[in-house]
Amino acid sequence: MPGVAFSYSKGEVDADKELCMSASGLLAQLLNGLASASSLFLVSVGLSLIFGVTRTINFAHGSFYMLGAFIAYAGVDQLAPHIGFWPALLLAPLACGLLGAVVEMLLLRRIYQAPELFQLLATFALVLVIKDAALWLWGPEELFGPRAAGFEGSVPILDRQFPAYDLLLIAVGPIVLLGLTLLLTKTRFGTLVRAATQDREMVGALGVNQAWLFTAVFALGTLLAGLGGALQLPREPASLEMDMLTIGAAFVVVVVGGMGSIPGAFIAALLVAELKAVCIWLGVQQIAGVEISFSKLTLVVEFLVMAVVLVWRPWGLLGKPQALARTGGETERPLRLAGRGASSAWIALLAALVLLPLAAGEGGSYATVLLTDIFIAALFAASLHFILGPGGMHSFGHAAYFGLGAYGAAQAVRLLDLPMEAALLLGPLVAAAGALLYGWFCVRLSGVYLTMLTLAFAQISWAIVFQWDGFTGGSNGVTGVWPPEWSIAWAPSGTAFYWLALAVCAAGIHLLRRLLFSPLGYALRAARDSALRADAIGIDVRRVQWTAFVIAGLFGGLAGALFAFSKGGVAPDAMSVAKSVDALVMVLLGGVQTLAGPVVGAAVFTWLHDTVARNTEYWRALMGAVMLVLVLLFPQGIAGFAQALHARMAAEKREGPKP
């Protein structure tokens, strides 16, 4: 009021200033969140389109995002002086779309009839090839692009300066959303895409050329991913880590929003990005006397959101339950115990492995180390195969139980001062406890939603061990965990631990196989083939699947416990997404529908990784190329191909020579 003076104490003035700064800081973070949401939406909506129409889990989508940034850098560097900044930048998404169409026609089109997980294996191999191609073309260093033409400065918002380019990014997301909505609702192409998202079998039955529809959708999806990467160039440098850093968040947005739902992807991107922004703004807070670092939650907040949404609404915020497929898949051969000849071959192989260190002497130490890694990988892969093949439960997060077993065994030695023998018992129990908890939620879902929930729980576990410095050692992990001295005195050069790992892994794999032919195993396969029929004859499907989930976690934890002693410790990488993908690759390379598949796949994968990585700088590309060849030539896996070949030769022998 005029003529009236107001006085404030120093504390009130400081409080007002703090409130103003806090409000401006929150607004700045929310605006940053909107800019990040637009970028996340661009890459996620392309994945959602591909995912919804082709049902392909395109692990290489993040690679096209990375390529968009690198190609934009090259285009701006070479062409901007001639055609201008923006035309040079926007050539990158067009190049990504063209490359995506070529990849779909030359690779994915050949394996659409293969199991969906083999498409995952093919796209993961593409990740390796594209990463090394980018390494060869642009080198390992981060590449900083120039400022965006016309948006170099900043604008004042309250008492802060906000980048003008981020305001442009905020506008891009809604513009792309509007454009895609018009495309999908006002054009024939959009009608076909929406129909295929809901029921692609019916679309094919109506005479639509699915091959070209899939190619067009894949090209559009990769174009949008490339656009997202290109638009990030003025904001952050192009780097080789952009692919894997992006793909996890993109999967979260697709599943949270609803598979194939474009508005759902936009809402999910906003939700994830703004929650991260709020966590950064909150920083470290004291709640009930406990110091909580909200900024650290940014590593896992999207997976927490996905876990909550999938438990509450399995088909996402704006998604719909998937229509049941009308076409039956290829009939799977029933699992059979190994015959007398195969059993004799396995026993002979086991005996040879036992005698190998004695025959090799001191010069065989490297071979024993490599074989120890193969044994542990084989048990890890077999534990995943137990629920993946016979159980039909696809998991992207099996490394959680491998890591829990490793950390449980390591901490039993370091904190409880237990001997190795006791730690090898305690570690798997810790993993089984984690599987007991996570499995209760996971078995309530099926298909891709179950897959994504396992990924969410694994990432939550990884974030806990990565940030709990006081207990897990944080990023440094737990070190100084080695086999006891008696084993070295009794058999030097690691031979004693080699025999121990061989015995434990062989026994574990044998037990898993026997369980598959127990009443539990038969009930598990019945639940996989038809949950409704299994329930009708009195099988408690959820209880059977939950039990199998815990058993798989137990044996995965046993592999992790052995891993901790073989490497002298454990770090958070042991439960990362990459470790889960390694297990999937092993199972798929060997063959999902064969008992020998995980063992063969683990041996081939571990040997390839070791051999290729030691002989070339571009080991990822070479390994990815080998995996692509194996996928194209042996879509049923190496062991599956060998089994089918043996069956055909036996049939020809019984029938005799043709006249």
List the helices and strands and how they pair.
Blueprint: H1 10-54, H2 61-83, H3 85-106, H4 116-138, E1 154-157, E2 160-163, H5 164-186, H6 188-205, H7 210-232, H8 242-257, H9 262-282, E3 284-287, E4 290-293, H10 301-312, H11 340-360, H12 365-388, H13 399-414, H14 420-442, H15 447-467, H16 469-472, E5 478-479, H17 485-490, H18 495-516, H19 519-529, H20 531-536, H21 541-567, E6 569-570, H22 577-590, H23 597-615, H24 619-633, H25 638-655
Antiparallel strand pairs: 1-2, 3-4, 5-6
Describe the protein in words.
This protein has helices at residues 10-54, 61-83, 85-106, 116-138, 164-186, 188-205, 210-232, 242-257, 262-282, 301-312, 340-360, 365-388, 399-414, 420-442, 447-467, 469-472, 485-490, 495-516, 519-529, 531-536, 541-567, 577-590, 597-615, 619-633, 638-655, and strands at residues 154-157, 160-163, 284-287, 290-293, 478-479, 569-570. By secondary structure, the chain is mostly helical. Among the domains are: 33-241, no CATH class; 364-576, no CATH class. The strands form three sheets. A two-stranded antiparallel sheet has the order 1-2. Strands 3-4 form a two-stranded antiparallel sheet. The chain has a two-stranded antiparallel sheet with strand order 5-6. Helix 2 (61-83) runs parallel beside helix 4 (116-138). The relative contact order is 0.11. Mean pLDDT is 84; it is low at 1-21 and 324-331.
